[in-house]
Amino acid sequence: MERLPKIGLPILIGVVLLIIFIAKSTITIGSGEAGVLYRTFAGGVVTDEPPLGEGFHLVAPWNKVYTYEVRQQEVFEKMQVLSSNGLEIKLDASAWFQPQYDKLGSLHQEKGENYVARILLPTIRSAARSVVGRYTPEQLYSSKRDVIQKEIYEETKKIVEDQYVQLNEVLVRDVTLPPTIKEAIERKLRQEQESLEYEFKLTKAQKEAERQKIDAEGKAVANQILSESLTDKILKEKGIQATLELAKSPNSKVIVVGSGKDGMPLILGNQ
């Protein structure tokens, strides 16, 4: 009976060590994540193999696994930049990005887990300063926001793609100008709108005047042609035709032939 504890103690210790070994040798990669393996005695960070995918993995206890989120993420940045004429502009932007999956080991080895602050944000700020510096406050406030957004995206993407970061989109959410500049631009835009409305009304009035002139000229020409075509013989013929038509009506009347002006008949009736 005294020998049982002596035999059971090493077994117990072995079981505990086995549990610790298993605990240290397993890792679970969550949904939307990937793991970078670091081999302590075999070359450090693994860059020539795919990263560890989602699920359960067995890893030697002396090695380490660094977990990265590989889904699309969003980062926000507020910046103060200068326009082409040196005015300070506040820019509120965000970027959609994710690490390049196949290059995750290289990203960890060269840039580290804090790659967003080290690589992505400084690049966005640099691109924004470069792009905004090409435009005036008026352009930034009105018609050029989409163009600026596209240019910041293209300049940022060109740099971060070589740094193992996949940039999906850059969004310029707000452009804030100094109050005095904003008021001046809005006043100028209102004046331009009023000028366009006045020009539209003036053009409309000119077109209406031209239409009336053309209509009057057409009527004058038509009257002239009609006047020239009505000779004495035609008028007499028309008068005779009208007289004959009146004579056919059932009303009582007296027709005096040749008593009217120019020899036209007169029709006298009691109705």
TrEMBL record:
Please give the biological process terms from Gene Ontology that the record holds.
mitochondrion organization
Q: Which Gene3D superfamilies match?
A: Band 7 domain
Question: Which terms are listed as keywords in the entry?
Answer: Membrane, Transmembrane, Transmembrane helix
Q: Which GO terms describe its cellular component?
A: membrane
UniProt xrefs under SMART domains: PHB (SM00244)
- Classify the protein's membrane topology as the record does: Single-pass membrane protein
Q: Boundaries of each Band domain copy?
A: 24-189
Q: Which residues form a coiled coil?
A: none
Which CDD domains would you find in this protein's record? Answer: SPFH_prohibitin
Residues annotated as transmembrane: 7-23
Location(s), subcellular = Membrane
**Which domain of life does the protein's organism represent?**
Bacteria
Q: What is this protein called?
A: SPFH domain-containing protein
- Native source species: Aquimarina brevivitae
Phylogenetic lineage: Bacteria, Pseudomonadati, Bacteroidota, Flavobacteriia, Flavobacteriales
